Amino acid sequence: MTEHKVEILTFEGCPNRARAIAFVDRVVAESRISATVEVVDVANPAQAVALRFLGSPTIRVGGVDIEPGAGERDDFALACRVYRTEAGLQGLPDPGLLELALAAELPA
Fold first, then answer.
1. 57 CB burial (10 A radius; 0-12, 13-18, 19+)
2. What mean pLDDT, rounded, does the chain reach?
3. Among 14, 25, 29, 73, which is most buried by a count of CB atoms within 10 Å?
4. CATH number for the domain including 94?
5. Which residues are within 8 A (CB) of 88 and not within 5 positions of it... i.e. 6 or more apart?
6. What is the number of domains present in the chain?
7. CB of 8 within 8 A of CB of 58?
8. Would you say 91 and 83 are in contact if contact means Cβ atoms under 8 Å apart?
9. What pLDDT digit, counting tens, does each position of 24-55 carry?
């Protein structure tokens, strides 16, 4: 069985850091997909650019940001990130984005 990699890019002091880790752990567990979750600390603006960091938390599955269209963005910064959700702008994405990304990583 292939184990998938989920990354949570964040920075020390991010108000959504702990919530993002709990969110990813919960969605991965509920998906029943074998995945390794890694927290990546972004320390400075130069590292934010190098990692293509769109703000905290950034969640990637297999190296790809779970938010559609994120690959075309270039507003990399050591900052907080908000997601458009069914409830409006939030500090975490809708669970469906992570679920879709995990499912897309499954072999056909």
1. buried
2. 92
3. 14
4. 3.40.30.10
5. none
6. 1
7. yes
8. yes
9. 999 999 988 889 999 999 999 999 999 999 99
Output the six-digit token pair for 62: 């297999």
% pLDDT > 90, the chain? 86
Split at pLDDT 50, 70, 90, the class of 92 is very high
Instruction: Tell the residue number behind the tokens 């020390």, with chain if given.
Output: 12
Bridge pairing between strands 64-65 and 4-10 = unpaired
Please choose, from the candidates 1, 56, 59, the residue with its C-alpha nearest in 3D space to the C-alpha of residue 26.
59
Which stretches within 1-108 are classed as H helix? 17-31, 45-50, 95-104
Q: Are strands 4-10 and 58-61 parallel, antiparallel or unpaired?
A: antiparallel
The parent domain of residue 46 ranges over 4-104
Count Cβ atoms within 10 A of the Cβ of residue 58 and give its class: 0-12 exposed, 13-18 middle, 19 or more buried: buried
Distance CA 58, CA 37 (A): 13
| 24/1 Cα distance (integer angstroms) | 20
